[in-house]
Design a protein that fits this description.
Elements: E1 4-7, H1 13-21, E2 27-29, H2 41-51, E3 55-58, H3 72-93, E4 96-102, H4 125-140, E5 143-149, E6 152-153, H5 160-170, E7 173-177, E8 181-182, E9 185-186, H6 187-217, E10 219-222, E11 229-230, H7 231-245, E12 253-257, H8 277-283, H9 290-300
Parallel strand pairs: 1-2, 1-3, 3-4, 4-5, 5-10, 6-9, 7-12
Antiparallel strand pairs: 8-11
């Protein structure tokens, strides 16, 4: 592949993994916040024009779910208007866009894993801003793919796993929600999947050009860890693995609670399960089972 890759959100969990995963695919241009302010759509457009990338990969987002309830303007600026600007900029320079979204675009009321064609209905500002970004990108006119994921974590950055393991060492008991269902997704698995997908598109682009290849694959895909659990189940499994490694360390017991016992400013979906069959059918990629990825991440901690 020739051409530049403009990567946003490089200080985040997924962005950090993407820098490494995409390194062999071309020149990765990964501006920091001083060079690319996602809260400023004009700055976004200027950066796209300056870089003139072949691909734009956008894991950058406003992800403070509870804080978004009191900062809706900033959440929409980053999660919606910046995405629109990236899409419009991509159309101008002939780039393709990969954008990451979330299970929070659904209301969480269903009992089966959500498919890409299921009706959306976000119940939080964060979810609504991410859905608006999806729609804005679809309207922008560039070739695009959107990957919805859930419960992202890894060995670095701020995430549930690192928080719960720290708390398990410091406290006697933890109370963790046991009635929200989903699948933890390893940031590295997401990055590897992205590189794989881009490679498949580039293979086809040799015959049809990038725009023609994107038409074959354009749309929304679900990309979350395989299997399912609850936040409580995730915590119990993680602490058990930590105990295997640190037999002498006293770790917290984990009590199961319901969502109502842990009120938060933003409502969370009860059902965050995502059906990822479309990703497997179109690209031959199956996301790792969350237990397997947890084992690999724990080995890095």
């Amino acid at each position: 592949m020739s051409g530049r890759i403009l990567l946003t959100g490089v200080t985040g969990q997924v962005g950090g993994e993407l820098i490494r995963a995409l390194a062999s695919m071309g020149e990765v241009v990964a501006p920091g916040r001083d060079e690319l302010d996602l809260a400023d759509a004009a700055s976004v457009r200027e950066r796209v024009r300056a870089v003139r990338p072949r691909w734009i990969v956008n894991p950058g987002a406003y992800t403070a779910v509870d804080k978004a309830e009191s900062e809706p303007d900033l959440a929409y600026a980053i999660n919606a208007e910046a995405v629109r600007a990236l899409g419009e900029g991509a159309r101008e320079v002939g780039a393709a866009v990969i954008h990451f979204s979330t299970d929070y675009v659904f209301d969480g009321e269903g009992t089966a894993p959500y498919r890409e064609t299921d009706a959306t209905g976000p119940v939080s500002v964060y979810g609504a801003s991410k859905l608006t970004g999806e729609l804005a990108l679809a309207e922008a006119g560039a070739g695009y793919m959107i990957f919805r994921t859930s419960w992202v974590y890894g060995a670095t950055g701020k995430n549930f796993l690192r928080t719960i393991l720290k708390a398990a060492r410091e406290r006697d008991r933890l109370r963790v929600v046991a009635d929200q269902y989903g699948a933890p997704t390893w940031s590295r698995d997401l990055a590897r999947m992205t590189a794989h997908v881009m490679g498949r598109v580039e293979d086809l682009a040799g015959e049809k050009g990038l725009a023609g290849a994107m038409k074959e694959f354009q749309g929304v895909y679900h990309a979350a860890g395989s299997g399912e659990t609850t936040w409580h189940g995730f915590a119990v499994e993680a602490i058990a693995k930590l105990h295997e490694r640190e037999r002498e360390t006293k770790l917290a017991e984990v009590d199961a609670i319901v969502t109502a016992e842990y009120p938060t400013p933003a409502k969370r979906p009860v059902n965050s399960r995502l059906n990822c069959e479309r990703l497997a059918e179109r690209f031959g990629w199956r996301m790792m089972d969350w237990r397997d990825s947890l084992g690999e991440v724990m080995a890095e901690l």
